[in-house]
Amino acid sequence: MAIVGILVGVVSLLRKLMIGNEAPLHVIQSSASLLGEATIPAITLIVGANLLRGHKKSAAGMWVVMGVQVVRCVALPLSGIVVVKVASHFVLVGSDPLYHFVLLL
């Protein structure tokens, strides 16, 4: 879905057809926006339902859980930093420090 959003934003003709109150296909953008606004309450309901069922024994072992945590908390942030630094070195992104900070988020 993000790729479709990028295409609509980049291609001027599609952007004029879908974005804005006077756009002929404004209903598509309006529908996508409505669905996007409903995701947070839906996720909250799903998490609440999972908590209501209670904790059950996990099929994953302790080492698998620790491995996932190491990847999520160490490897992914480090890889993001490396990608931004390499892109900055090859002048693929601007030199603004605030822009680099946003890319790291």
From TrEMBL:
The keyword Endoplasmic reticulum applies. One of its GO terms (cellular component) is endoplasmic reticulum membrane. InterPro entries: Mem_transp_PIN-like (IPR004776), PILS1/3/4/5/7 (IPR045033). It is found in: Endoplasmic reticulum membrane. Keywords: Auxin signaling pathway, Endoplasmic reticulum, Membrane, Transmembrane, Transmembrane helix, Transport. It comes from the Eukaryota. PANTHER family: PROTEIN PIN-LIKES 1-LIKE, PTHR31651. Involved in cellular auxin homeostasis by regulating auxin metabolism. Regulates intracellular auxin accumulation at the endoplasmic reticulum and thus auxin availability for nuclear auxin signaling. Belongs to the auxin efflux carrier (TC 2.A.69.2) family. This is Uncharacterized protein LOC104218919 isoform X1. It comes from Nicotiana sylvestris (Wood tobacco).
